[in-house]
Amino acid sequence: MKHTQYHTTTLYENILEQIISSGVDKKDITTKHTSVFDEFHVRGKEVTKKLFEDIDLNDTAQVLDIGCGPGGTCRMIAEKYGCDVTGVDITTEYIRTAQKLSELTKTDNLTTFITADANKLPFVNSSFNLIVTQHVQMNIEDKARFYSEISRTIRSGGRLVYYDIFKTNNNSNITYPLPWADNEKQSFMEHRTSIHNILASYGFIPETFINQTTDSTKALQKLLNKIADGSFNVKGQQLFMGDYTVDKLTNLFEMLNNGTLEMESAVWIKTAL
What we know:
It is globular and about 55 Å long. It starts with 10 loop residues before the first helix and ends with a strand. The protein is an alpha/beta fold. The model is unreliable at 1-6 (pLDDT under 50). The longest helix has 17 residues, at 213-229. It has 10 helices and 7 strands.
């Protein structure tokens, strides 16, 4: 996983400043306020909530979010189920920000954040009931190793939930920059069927697939329209994607719209090989 693409400094302080500048007192900040910034994937909190509405977890579950960023999904799951959630990310500033935001929103008793490589997870075998990845595998070149680590650390009968972006079969060139990569050297796009085959080889069986392309395309079009007419403050997005945020979002929208890329979420169940 590439960490330079997402490197930024004082991320927590910048998020806090933007929330307070909107008129919210620091002591009153909750995950409702931080989710505007910490759900760093297309459609944000909206799609995260839908991904987990049919997942059966209780407060004894152990959950891992790989590529957790600033920890928004971890806090959402922890609040919904009351279970322990661990987030890992290779970007140190994301982990510091995730820890500080959990302290700020009083969810630090249920969330733990660790700087770690997704291909070298620092956990013993069969540690988790649920593993989550959202917009992560595009930055990982060795996908077999990535999913082998997921297979190693998930319990038999546990679930993998992913929400990801894939290339299609139309052979069009991918245009950069994109939200996860400034250039092709930072991006490792695959067809979804390739990922399906890898997961099947590690003993996962599919439970559900949802094509998220249409809803994601509509959401990006709406966001870009709001940015253009000035009704959406793009500063929050720029904290993560920098000065070329609009270009990155526009390129992603156009390639989803023309069929070069597609988005899919899925739930896979781990079985014993």
